[in-house]
Amino acid sequence: MPADRAPRTGWGARRTTLVLLLALVCAAVLLTALPDDREGGAACEARTVSSWSADEETTGMFARYGDDTARADDWTGGDGTHSVRLPDGRLLWLFSDTFLGQVHAPPNPVGQPHTWRDTTAPMVRNSAVVMSRSGTLQRTLPAPLFPDPAPNQWRWPVAAQVEPRSPGSSDDVVRVLLWTRATGTGPWIYGVPTGTEVATLSLPDLRVEGIVKVSDQQSVPDPDKRVLYGTTAIDDDGWTYVFGGNDGQAAARPASHAYVARVPQGRLAEPGAWRYWDGKGWTKDGKPRSVLGDGERKGVGSAFTVVRVKGTYVLFTMAAGTEGLTTVTSYWACSPTGPWRGPTKSFAPPLPKDGAAEQDVAAYNPQAHPALSGNGRLLLSYDVNWLDATPASAQANVSRNVSLYRPRFVSLRLATAR
Fold it and tell me: Which of 93, 108, 254, 320 is most buried, judging by how many CB atoms fall within 10 Å of its CB?
């Protein structure tokens, strides 16, 4: 080797070593900066329903409570069906449109075989039922729990969380997300979406202390593009992720879109703390962008639910875009913002026997109840209603057979999708 090449060869070796060291340092930095999809050592994995069965015990519990004639102002049926565990061990069940009053035994097992309620029975826009620590439904709170915000407007409760009254406070309260709606015509026979609010309930007496608006959608000209938040709320790494959708003509279009916002844990009732996913990051004033939905095969119903199973987010919704309002399907993701993959395996939960055509009865609003889940089992509720073009006709049918307007439950087991 010529003498004049030796120094350059030595420098080349040192340069190679330096490049390798820099590469290792950069790799370490990148690994540190990448989001961690692990929780408790479990990686994010594709998950789907491996098996399911009807939960007759929980379904029967609400049927017995609704049929009890001991009080005339009790819950006899409703939809919405969200739940939250209270610090003292009780469970608070929240419902949207609710029938009160009493029900009657079948007068004629042949001509009228179903338990029924009078068509003049009072109906309120929301209600809450308290379950004891031992799992017994105890009482219906004075209903409606959340008063109408204005004439021809109403509030439907959705997800709820127990939070400190203020950051760092030892005094807990319940925050309840509310969808506000207004009377509509044409395709909006079940109301025009107007915004999302958060109510504060005191503990332990569950008294409404106040309601604040966190998202006003009335300035959005097209009601079909208005987003309501609160179908599910999940705490993760210091944030509460609040999912929602462009709730509107769900039965008339293939599928709705899912959206997500986030709030620092403990600050749901602070409008200024909310941030919305716009496709690139979290923004306060920007236009939110959907995280799931293509308007055709993929998407969500107007109400859906999300749970976190180890490192994976799993979303359950009615498969309205492909199989009608009888089938529940799911999607999975490693982050609330997606990408959401699916739909995965679907299942058709049982509907009450009514003697009517199958297309006249719909299942909707699947909701997870983590407080009553465990040991690898996930409890999921779904609501049942009569499909009809007019609310008055639907009300008459669900009064004729009270089981058509009560929550039903299934028990699911999830597994890694193959």
Answer: 93
Distance CA 65, CA 75 (A): 8
Q: If DSSP codes are grouped into helix, strand and coil, which group holds residue 40? A: coil
Q: Give the residue numbers spanning the domain of 120.
A: 34-416
Predicted pLDDT at 66: 95
Please tell me the predicted confidence (pLDDT) of residue 4. 29
Sheet holding 123-124, edge to edge: 77-78, 98-99, 123-124
CA nearest to 406, candidates 358, 372, 373, 363:
363
**pTM score, whole prediction:** 0.87
- Segment 408-412 mean pLDDT: 98
Q: How many domains does the chain fold into? A: 1
Q: Is residue 94 part of a domain?
A: yes
**Cα end-to-end span (Å), the chain:** 59
Q: For residue 289, is it within any domain?
A: yes
In a domain? residue 156: yes
CATH number for the domain that contains residue 195: 2.115.10.20
17-26, 116-125, 184-193, 349-358: least confident range: 17-26
Strand partners, 160: 176
Residue 17 belongs to some domain of the structure: no
Render pLDDT for 173-220 as a digit per residue (tens, 0 to 9). Answer: 999 999 999 998 878 888 999 999 999 999 999 999 999 999 999 999
